[in-house]
Design goal:
Blueprint: E1 3-5, E2 21-22, E3 28-30, H1 39-46, E4 51-53, H2 55-58, H3 68-71, H4 76-95, H5 102-119, H6 121-130, H7 136-154, H8 159-171, H9 177-183, H10 192-211, H11 217-225, H12 246-261, H13 272-282, H14 289-299, E5 307-310, E6 315-318, E7 330-335, E8 341-349, E9 358-361, H15 372-375
């Protein structure tokens, strides 16, 4: 029986092991199902040179090859629309108890999202922020899934584990879809009944996924625990710190950030800088501090699709992600300093001259036709 060396990205805090763990001599160290409780315990275990057996029987679920031809024939907007439509169909079928191979369907979508992040990530992020025709309850999980993939890559997690995390992000709010639709258009405070639904949705979501035939422990635990807080004040179990699975910590952050920056019927979607400030203030309490730093490093202060005011008075839209430690931010100027639309929008790079420095994020432009597919060249 083949021995497979276990590496750091194979182990997760707060998630039952999917295989038994052995030392170099073949002695059993941990039974299948054992749960690591801390990062320290994980690191001590790794120093011993550990292995698992019978890899072919124990590997995590592999998705079928994604139907790329179905998703990548049109523009970025078309791809996102089709992904959202496919999600809606899958959600409806699960709620209707229609039998299907849901695990592989969601993993196929996750693989498509991984490809989008490799080939046109700026366009995806920008289109999501700019195009207000998207249904909130479908675009929120897509944005959360994209950010989950970006954070997973930043943490150097392997591709298969990231795919599981993406599938969890797509399904994390399946237990409150109807309420999520309503809240996207609701400016009034939550009712007691709505609060009860929100508190119950992680457990309901896990139950719905299990009933649909999804049995991957990392996936289910991430959905069940994505509203736990680092300080222990979350729900449903009041977990804290390293007891919260890493996938759930990632989903918690991407869920919160996505809800903060997506446009709603009662507000404009220009909260991106405030959202990052709020995330930063919540680090170590509501969200994982290291992940909060990684998110800021990954998307920058002004993510693609953010409307910004430049020092010379022009108004434009950010085209590319930029690290927080650089002034080189690419902007497409749409309005001149007098507030009139340019006949041909001007590409600016903020480090070329002080005139193009970003002063602040601003509200969505009302007098300019926003066409995301013309802002980002299509690339598959």
């Amino acid at each position: 029986m083949e021995k497979i060396k276990i590496i750091e990205t194979d182990l997760f805090i707060g998630i039952p092991l999917e295989w038994a763990v052995y030392d170099e001599e073949g002695q059993l160290l941990l039974d299948k199902g054992y749960m690591l409780n801390s990062e320290k315990q994980k690191q001590i275990l790794l120093t011993q040179g550990i292995f698992r057996l019978d890899f072919t029987a124990q590997t995590i679920e592999k998705p079928r090859p994604p139907t790329d031809g179905k998703f990548f024939k049109g523009t970025t907007h078309d791809t996102l629309k089709l992904l959202g439509k496919t999600l809606r169909v899958l959600f409806d079928k699960i709620h209707e108890n229609t039998p299907d191979d849901y695990s592989n369907h969601f993993l196929d979508l996750a693989a498509v999202i991984q490809r989008l992040c490799r080939t046109q990530c700026d366009a995806v992020l920008g289109t999501i922020l700019l195009d207000q025709s998207f249904n909130y309850s479908h675009i929120h999980p897509l944005l959360s899934a994209v950010l989950t993939e970006l954070l997973g890559k930043r943490k150097q997690l392997n591709e298969d584990n990231r795919r599981i995390f993406i599938a969890a992000a797509l399904t994390q709010n399946i237990g409150m879809l109807e309420l999520q639709k309503k809240l996207a258009n609701q400016a009034s405070p939550l009712s007691d009944q709505q609060r009860d639904i929100i508190k119950a949705h992680p457990e309901l979501g896990r139950a719905l996924l299990q009933k649909a035939g999804i049995n991957n422990a990392e996936w289910l635990n991430a959905v069940h625990n994505h509203h736990e807080r680092i300080d222990g004040n979350g729900y449903p179990d009041g977990l804290s710190g390293d007891a919260i699975p890493v996938a759930a910590r990632i989903l918690s952050l991407t869920d919160i950030y996505s809800a903060m920056i997506l446009p709603r019927a009662y507000r404009d979607g220009f909260y991106v800088k405030k959202a990052l400030r709020d995330i930063f203030l919540q680090r170590g309490s509501a969200v994982d501090e290291s992940l909060a730093h990684l998110l800021i490093k990954e998307i920058g202060i002004y993510p693609p699709g953010t409307f910004v005011l430049l020092a010379n008075g022009e108004t434009g839209v950010v085209l590319k992600r930029a690290p927080v430690d650089t002034e080189s931010i690419h902007v497409l100027s749409l309005l001149n300093p007098q507030g009139k639309p340019f006949a041909n929008p001007k590409q600016r790079v903020s480090d070329e001259t002080v005139a193009f420095k970003i002063i602040k994020a601003t509200q969505r432009l009302k007098n300019v036709a926003i066409q995301p597919d013309r802002f980002w060249p299509l690339s598959h």
